[in-house]
Amino acid sequence: MENSGEQFDVIVIGAGIMGSSTAYQTSKRGHKTLLLEQFDFLHHRGSSHGESRTLRATYPEDYYSRLVIESSHLWEEAESEIGYKVYFKSPQFDMGLSDDKSLRAVIASCRKNSIPHRVLDQRQVHEEFSGRIQLAENWVGVLSDLGGVIKPTKAVSMFQTLALKNGAVLRDNSEVFDIKKDDVRDGVFVCTRNGESFWGRKCVVTVGAWMNKLVQSVTGLVLPIQPLETCVCYWKIKQGHEEEFTIQGGFPTFASYGEPYIYGTPSLEFPGLIKIPVHGGQRCEPDKRTWSPAPMILDSLRQWIRERFGDRVDSTGPVMTQSCLYSMTPDEDFVIDFLGGEFGKDVVVAGGFSGHGFKMAPVVGRVLADLVDNGEAKGVELKQFKLGRFEEKGTGNVKEFEDQVTLADFPSLSD
């Protein structure tokens, strides 16, 4: 490999939101950074495209709330550097049965992390939203100020532009098929199918749904990260009610706990349409997808829309759908760790963001930059994101509440 091409301080593989945020952070610190993408930049084949993602700090797990709070500040910091907005603030509204364990854990986490919130009963919710959201008598709502909508494709472009401004090298259509340890100088060689090879002092792998494929080909290690094909659905707001469901009209981002877990954003990207999908999807190979929603998912959404929004939203069926990929771990927690083995701390992997990581991309990028800088992340406990948790217990972290997405038969972590 002595004929390898350019040399870099950091090579980031995968230019979705996590890789682009990482390249922004490492280049901002003065590291010579290379960002590689297997497809075109800003493609629609992975997990970082589309028109909206939710930002919320209301999590059952304490550690996510803290990460979201930091990320909300980092989103604004990047916006100030680029000169345009990707994060549009709104309240966040969570709802579910009053005895739902996950929702009760959300309330407890809000209290523990001093996140301003109000717990509302059926009548109070009706008054708060002027009848726009209707809860059953045995449901409660949790309203918090920290919420909003992030523009995904625009956000990825923002981080790539800022990385480029900071001196990073960006190359798309450069699929990586191998990572080799440099036994002479330390560091690694990264090889692409274009026949190019690059040397990096450190390497960060953020390839989303392709994580298992790449890591297994390089090390033989099977990560318990399952790609899912999910479908984002947009529903028609009935005439005369369009403004009621906008951010300007005071409508929140929202999540509905239970089976299924449903979430959504105010009407923003497409006038007169509101995004309401199910959190979950169908197992898939990332290069082989149906590109269409499962009928039973649509049935549950229709019923939920009728019950929550009454005659204000047409529940007949979605007027538009968009396919997207999740990278699910058994416990729905992230994987952020050193690859280990012969690579030691030269290669960091970050994946398994399980359909809820986008909002935390700025802090994930910061953490990954810390790890390649000095081997540890400042101010963040990463034990819940370690690869080793699957060796100790195949299902990973133990939770005292229900999973939002139910999956069985995950591959075990083995070589």
From TrEMBL:
InterPro entries reported for this sequence: FAD-dep_OxRdtase (IPR006076), FAD/NAD-bd_sf (IPR036188), MTOX (IPR045170)
Record-annotated FAD dependent oxidoreductase domain positions: 9-371
Q: What is the lineage of its organism?
A: Eukaryota, Viridiplantae, Streptophyta, Embryophyta, Tracheophyta
Record keywords, A-Z: FAD, Flavoprotein, Oxidoreductase
Classification via Pfam families: DAO
The UniProt GO MF terms for this protein read: oxidoreductase activity
Spell out the PANTHER family in the cross-references. FAD DEPENDENT OXIDOREDUCTASE DOMAIN-CONTAINING PROTEIN, PEROXISOMAL SARCOSINE OXIDASE
Record-stated family: Belongs to the MSOX/MTOX family.
Q: Which cofactor does it need?
A: FAD
User: What name does this protein carry?
Assistant: FAD dependent oxidoreductase domain-containing protein
Question: Which organism's genome codes for this protein?
Answer: Ilex paraguariensis (yerba mate)
